[in-house]
Amino acid sequence: MTSPDDLSPQAPDPEVAWERLHPLSVWASAVAIAVFLVPLAIVGTVVLAVVSPSPWVLVPVPATLVFLALTTYLDLLRLRATRFRVTGERMEVRSGIVAKSYRSIPRERVRSVDVAAPIFVRIFGLCSVTVGTGEQVGSGGSDQLQLVYVTADQGEALRRDLLDRGRAARATVSPGAEEGEEGTVGAEEAEVGEVELARLKPAWLGFASATTATLGVGLGAVAALLGLNAQTQGWAWDWMSGRLGLPTPEEMSSYVMTRLLVVVPTALVALLVSGVVVLTAVAVETWWNYRLTREPDGTVRLRRGLLTSVSLSVEERRLNGVTLHEPFVMRLAGGADVRAVATGLAAADAKKTSAKSRLSPGMPRARARELAAALMRTPDSPLDVPLTAHPGSALRRRFTRAGVATLVGAVAAALLAWAHALATEAWWSHVYEVEEEIIPLPLATRTVEATPSWGWAVAAVLFGVLAFGYAVGSYRALGHGLHPRYLVVRRGMAARDTVTLERSAVIGWRITRSPFQRWAGLADVAATTAAGDGMYAAADVGLDQGLAWADAAVPGLLEPFLVRDGGAGPEGSGRS
Fold first, then answer.
1. With 80 as the cut, is the pLDDT of residue 263 above it?
2. Helix segments in 127-209, DSSP class H
3. 121 and 147 in contact (C-beta within 8 Å)?
4. Which single residue of 360, 369, 400, 439 has CA 20 to 30 Å from 353?
5. Could you give the percent of the chain with pLDDT greater than 70?
6. Whole-angstrom distance, CA of residue 351 vs CA of residue 324
C-alpha cells in the first residue's frame, strides 16, 4: 500500500497526538455478536431437547458465552493496540496485537471517505471510517485504511478534513480535540453551501423488484427448503406433515397433476410476490434517507441507509464520468440507475466496487439522465449525443452465435426426445424413487413422463426465438459517440450500460481483434483510464471507424500506431 519509506514513521509530528478508537467499540461488537449468536444457541438447545434429550443439550449456551467472552477480550486488546492520527501531510494508523503494523497514506492520495454506521453501533453514537486511495494492491483489493469504530463526530470531522485540500497544508487539529466548537461551525457551513442533486422518492422503491432476480428469490427459498429435506432424507417433511396433518406426498402429487393449469400459475404468482416483498424490503434498508449532494468542499456526498447508515464522499474532480445502468426488466419498466466512473472507489472485488460506485437507486429514466447531466456539469448532456451505429457485420456475428446456440438446443432436444421414447416403466419408477428422496412433492418425473414427444421440439423452437431476439437486442444496444468533453460508449442487452468518460481521463487505447473479428473487419476499441473499471470498450466496431473515433477523442495519442494511405482515414491496428 505504501512505499518502502512509508513502512516506518517518517518524521514524527509532536504537535499532533495519536488517538485511540472509542472504548464503546468493544461493547458494540459484543452486542452485535450476542444478538446474533445467543438466540441461535437457545434455539439449538430447544431443538436438541425435543429431538434427542442428552447432556449435549447443555452445551450451546455456555459455549456461546465463552466465545463471546473470548471475542470481547480480543477486541479489548485490539482497542489498546490501535492508534491513528491525521497530520498536515499524512493519515497514519498503528495496529496489531501480535504482529505490529504501521500504515500511512499521504493526504494528497486520499480519494474517498466512507462513513458507515450499522444500527448496532449507531445506538452507541459510533461509526466506522474507511479511507480509500483508489489504488489496487496486488490481488487483495484496494489501498485503504479503516477505523472501527470512532464517534460520529470524529467520523464527520475526518471526512471533512481528509477531503478538504485547502486545509491539508496546515497542521490538522485532532478530530477528537476541540470537537464541540470547530465541528459545529464546519457542519453549519456544509449545510448552508451544499447543493442537493437527488433525494429519494418512495415511488422509486418500486424499481427494486424490476429485475430478473425477482422470481429467483422465491425459487432460492424453495431450493433451500428442498436442500434441507434432502439432507434429512425426507425426515423434515415427514416430521412436519405428521404434526400438521398434511396430506401424504402421493396425495399432493396426484392433486397437483390433475390441476396443473391452476397450480402452476398460482405457484408462479406466489414466487413473484415473495420476490417483490424481499427485494423491496432490501431496497428500503439500503436506500432509505437517500440524498446525493454537492458539498462546498468540492466533493459529491452520498447518504443512505435505514439500519446501516452510509455516508460516502468522493472528490468531484476525481469523478471522470458516469454510467447509466439499465437492466433488462428495469429498462422495460422505464427505469435506470446512475453509477460513478471515478478513481477512489475500488473495493476488494468487482461486485463490491460496482456497489460502491452506485450513486442512485432505480429511478425513472428521465430523472436518471437528469442526475447524470448534473453530475457532469455540462449544459448539453453527453447522454444526448447521437451515437454511431456499428456495422452490419456485428449483427451477423451475433446471428452466428444465436444460430450455434439454436443448433445445440435442437440437438439436445432431439436427444431428450429419443431418450424419452426409449424410457421404460421400470426406469421411470427408479427416477421417481430418487426424486422422492430430494423433493417432498415429486412432480418433475411425472411431468416429464407425461410430456408428449413434440413438447421437446416446441422447447427447442422457443429457445431459438429467444436466442435470435437476444442477438438483435444486443446489436441495437451497440453505439459510440463524442461530446466536446466526453466520449460515450453503449453496449449490453441483459444490462445496458451507457458510459460517459472524460476525454482528458483517457490514458491509452487498446485495440483487440479475435480471428473472427479480423475476418469480419471488426475490432474492440477500448479506452484505458485510471477511473472506474479501468477500460471502456466500443465492442465490435468497424476497424477504420473505431480508430477514427479514438483518434478524434484524444488527438495524437494513437497517432504513432496509425498507418494512413494517401490522406485517407486511419487503417491498421494499434495497442497502447
1. no
2. 152-163, 179-193
3. no
4. 369
5. 79
6. 17
